[in-house]
Amino acid sequence: MIAEEIIAELRELGDPSRIAVLERFAIKTEQCLGISTPDVKAFAKEVKKLVTDRHAVAAELWASGIFEARSVAFLIDDPKQVTPQQMDAWAADFDNWATVDGACGYLFCRTPYAYERAVEWTTREPEFEKRAAFSLMAYLAVHDKKAPNEKLSAFLPLIEKHSDDERNFVKKAINWALRQIGKRHLVLNGLAIESAEVIKASGTKAGRWIAADALRELQGEAVRERLVRKNV
């Protein structure tokens, strides 16, 4: 099964009336076929069984620029074959939050370069590239089960530093990363709360929102009780 065949099948599945549904969730991209996320995932699962060189096909699908084809790309690609150069190139193509989070959550966080890319992308100016930095941090906090606390806490100074970014998709990802790190371990919970207090004290509009929302969850009884049970 080759990329052209996959794209042709995706076009058959497309329903233009669904594009408005995506837009209601602030997913706006130039090329969109209108396929639901569950259907894209189910389709990708079948494609994965049929494609021999998943990495090469993923590259072709990504190059198409089609929203759903790019989703299939990050769902079938082999993280062991992904390079930092590929990660940077795909990040430069990001044009909506769903593709950012999908690529980071299903593919990039499983590569050996995830931590260094997360740090590097905080320096990027485009909104979706910068979102990718913090989306990657959030997913690493969830999926990298073997990561020591020190590896994740190293992200906190960067979260503090960039907490003044007013752009919606960036500040939400910063908040998300802070909360996910703080829900990982009792020690990280305390450190994340400290970072949230630093952000709150900075007085920026974005920072106040990030901190208030994070503190509400991180200091909540549900999170604290779960972490205590987990770390007994």
Key phrases:
single chain; 232 residues; mainly alpha; Serine Threonine Protein Phosphatase 5, Tetratricopeptide repeat; 2 domains; 15 helices; globular
Write the layout of secondary structure elements.
Blueprint (H helix, E strand, L loop, with lengths): L2 H11 L5 H6 L12 H14 L3 H10 L3 H10 L7 H10 L3 H10 L7 H8 L5 H17 L5 H5 L2 H6 L6 H15 L3 H17 L2 H14 L2 H10 L2
Helix pairs in contact: 1-4, 3-5, 4-5, 5-7, 7-9, 8-9, 9-12, 12-13, 12-14, 13-14
Outline the structure in words.
It is a single chain. The protein has two domains: 1-78, no CATH class; 90-232, Serine Threonine Protein Phosphatase 5, Tetratricopeptide repeat, CATH 1.25.40. Helices cover 70% and strands 0% of the residues. It has helices at 3-13, 19-24, 37-50, 54-63, 67-76, 84-93, 97-106, 114-121, 127-143, 149-153, 156-161, 168-182, 186-202, 205-218, 221-230. Helix 3 packs across helix 5 and helix 12 (168-182) packs parallel to helix 14 (205-218).
Q: Runs with pLDDT <50, length 5+?
A: none
CATH class of the largest domain: Mainly Alpha
How many helix segments?
15
Please give the CATH architecture of the largest domain: Alpha Horseshoe
Helix fraction, binned, reads over 70%
What is the gist of this entry?
The protein is built from 15 helices and no strands. It has 232 residues and is mainly alpha-helical.
